[in-house]
Amino acid sequence: MNILLSVPFLIFMPMVLSLLLLSPLFTSNEILIRRFSKSVFAIHFLYTVLMLIFFDSANPYSSVINFFGLDWIQSMGIKFSLKIDTISMILVVLTSFVFLMASLSSKFNIRKNHKFYYSMLMLLESSILGIFTANDMFLFFLFWELEMVPAYFLIGSKFSEQNEYNADAKKSAVKFILFTFFGSMFMLLGFLLLHYYNFVSNGVLSAGYADIISSTIPKGIQMLIAICLLIGFGVKLPIIPLHTWLPDAHTNAPTPVSMVLAGILLKTGGYGIYRFNYEMLSESFKTIAPILAVLALINIIYTAFVSYAQTDIKRIVAYSSISNMGLVLLGLCAINKIGLSASVFHMVSHGLVTCGLFMIAGIVYLRFKNRDINTLQGVAAVMPRLFGFSVLIVLASIGIPLFAPFISEVLTIIGAMNSDFSDVIKFAALFSLPLLILSSCYMLKFLHNSFFGEVKEEFLKVNDLSVHEFVILASILCGLIIFGLFPNVILGTITG
Amino acid sequence: MINDIFSIMLPQMSLGFFIILLLFLSMVLSPRLYKYSRLISVIGIFCSIVLLSTVQTEPQYFGLRNSVMSDSYTLLFQFVILVCGFLVALLSKNLIKTKKKHAYTFHAILLTAIFGAINIISANDFITLLISLELLGFSTYFLISFAKGYYSKEAAFKYLITSAVSTGVFLFGVSYLYGITGSLNISQIYEYITVNETSLIYSISAIIIVLGLSSKLAVFPFANWIIDVYKGCDTSVLAFISTIPKLAMFGIICRLMVFPLSNSFELTFVIAILALITALWANTYAIRENNVKVIFACSASANASYALLTASLVSVYNLSTVIFYLICYVFMNIGVFAYLNMYGDNNSFEVESFKSLYHKNHGLTCAYALLIISLAGIPITSGFVAKIYLFSAIANSGLIFVPFLLGLLLLTVVALFYYLKVLLPLFEECDKNNETKILPPKFSQKFVLVISAIITFFIGIYPEVLIQLCRYIAYNI
Predict the structure, then answer these.
(1) Other C-beta atoms within 10 Å of B247: how many?
(2) DSSP characters for A193-262?
(3) Cα(B26)–Cα(B329) distance, rounded to whole angstroms?
């Protein structure tokens, strides 16, 4: 079975198909393109599920691609090597799922430039999968940079004639790409230093993860590298002073793209911190962790308040993602097994929740041409099914038992409480408890203002959920409930 | 002896023969036959490339007191210069059409410039170097003034003055070096330096020499000319200016730094600071500019400063990264100017006028976009690999240079901003009343653009072969 399940195929299939889709030879019939892309994403998801079923954590999938017997950049010891271990596997499945949902929801939001849109979506999937599966830091960096290109076009291009496209989209796309590039330049500095000092201490010219973990780098330099890398990942995650690109990008992007950005793209930052700071530079991470925990606390509390002040549904959800990513960071700072597994679990559960919330925002906007919760009212009266799903997903997001976020949030805080090397982290965990209240404040405000009340007359004939939307929301909800009831599916595999 | 020189100087000689042939034809032929001038110069350069392959790669010195040398390093640089010259000559079709009378003269001067450039690389003597430098400089001056209009004359004059001043500075440094070592031969100076202790005056002379030479790279004290020159001159000449003088100058600067000027920490530091200032100036200047030519001028200056900074941290590894970076860079630049050449020199080069060109010609605009992305250093292009490889050299040079590296990396973020400014209007929606008229692309322009895009893309995917070559060259210098 292992012969059929290859990592390069998993990563490069969407990329190759995106090029095929973009080529002038491919049909320009919109319906065919849409069905083709949907089936590609569906097949990809099935493939990842198959990989998950046959996954064996003692013997993870890995492969090294050679070019005519030479490594990719042999002179610098850079190999084109890919590997899927437990955490990668979980995030790969999540990625594939979120992209499938996004492609399904594209039917209503994308009205033109289908070819370009779907090919960019596939390219984005490939590059994000590359980030999660790379086993060499320069390969990681390649995918990290590559991901900017499709993300830029998806945020900034015009994909529908309606006034859903607003003039700020281009500006926020430029903002996104400049912020990311700024971060990744710091990251490059860190990688170059890491590469060099790994060579100095190990004597092997290599950029592979395993070689770097085994090297002993002096602590001062480790701190320098760790800070550089943290700035890079902090832009993506985002950690508070570096977050300003996020609300703009998430608000102005089309709905499916917002789902992808919040559902997956932010997780690449968390994954990077785990992979590099937590795993490779563990010595310096112990020193940095208390500071990071404070930053995470600021993330959690500050953005929760900001989110409460917003009136645009998408902005509320965007700020709530920043808040939740603070929790992911806090889990990593705990440096113990509970914290780590809770952090990864929260990535998954938040990915699902935020996907669902953006979907709801998109559906509401599509029908009512309005995302302002002050003027929007009475959605529940005309769209009862949407209301049902919204109540459940909103409840899930504020951490009600039965749903996955409850377990991940509580476990994160338990993990942080149990961290045994610094009291700062315990305090941070203690003070992050109000998150559970604050999140219910802004989420319930959103639910209350937009769904209850009298509906305006011109919207009386609005249709309820279509089959596509129903399927998307139902499958997201299924995921939330399954992971809420059986959290050991994920937690067990991480803790071993 | 004569036989030796003949076998080694064959590429130069064939180039010289074609220069004389073109000059002769310019007197004899009527302007109606202007088209053949391009053909002849292309054939001339091609012959030179073919003859270059017959030269041995072992180090050889010859000429009066060994004033000329040849080894694998010079051969590589000469080869790249000739290939660039070949592509540049192909682009000249539109320019010579506007000046049919002077078509043959133009190509004769172009070949003279290339002749000067390949002689700079192989110079082993400061006098030979000076003569070749002037040959390149004066030819460039004529090429710049070749375009129509007042601006090209102004640009040419500015270039002339800058290069005259910088030559003076260069000679000043050489005179110090002569005073210390009593020789003008590079090998002999190197021998002297390895045996004797060096003093501060030696470092000063080294700094002055490199300053004088780097004026053609538009590095800080002599950087201002580049804006006017790029604004004023024709795009086919720009393809020349942005590549060949740069290759020649880096060729000689790197060799000087590795050999006679190597053991001077002051030189490294001064050059590094100047390069950082240049990068700062060029990148911030371009933010407010809306003229595509000026933006590329700033980008040229900035890119040169990155490579110069790396070259100044003398080591063999750094040398290989600089060579790799230059080879990637010249192909990106030639491709970019091929596209601008196709766009036509009669149009305005404001960013806005490039709007929605993607909808007029998909393939070629995509190739152009790939080249710009590569200049910005985004994968999967050669620019990305070149950036990592080049900056890894600075990172390997010690913690003192980490602030420099950080500065350069942050400036590339600024650079991305103006590259986006060039890139984004291309893909905008079509306007009904868009009046930009593009001449129908000629085969030669398409050829140059596509070739450079393909090279950029393939080096981006699989750089190892070229890197191995650069390392081989650098370790055998």
Answers:
(1) 24
(2) HHHHHHHHHH-----BHHHHHT----HHHHHHHHHHHHHHHHHHTT-GGG-THHHHHHHHS-HHHHHHII
(3) 34
Spatial separation of the C-alpha atoms in residues B352 and B290, rounded to whole Å: 8
Given an 8 Å threshold on Cβ–Cβ distance, is A146 in contact with B378?
yes
Chains A and B form CB pairs within 8 A to the count of 86
ipTM confidence: 0.90
Which residues in chain A have their CB less than 8 angstroms from residue B395's CB?
A: 189, 192-193, 195-196
d(CA A73, CA B319): 17
User: In this structure, what token pair is assigned to residue A482?
Assistant: 């399954």
pLDDT digits (tens, 9 = 90+) for B398-449: 888 889 999 999 999 999 999 988 888 888 776 666 666 666 788 888 999 9
Structure tokens at B256: 């000087």
Phi-psi region at B149: left, alpha or beta (left = phi > 0; alpha = psi -120 to 50):
left
- Please name the residue of chain A whose CA is at the shortest distance from the CA of residue B404: A189
* Percent above pLDDT 70 for chain B: 96
The C-alpha atoms of residue B368 and residue B395 are separated, in whole angstroms, by 31
Q: Which residues of chain A have pLDDT under 70?
A: 1-4, 161-166, 496
Say whether B219 sits in a helix, a strand or coil. coil
Residue ranges per domain, chain A? 287-496
Tell if the CB–CB gap between A149 and B378 is shorter than 8 Å.
yes
Q: Which two tokens stand for residue A38?
A: 């949907």
pLDDT at B316: 82
Report how far residue B224's alpha carbon sits from residue B399's, in angstroms, rounded to the nearest whole number.
32
d(C-alpha A488, C-alpha A229), whole Å? 32
Beta carbons within 10 angstroms of residue A30's beta carbon: 14
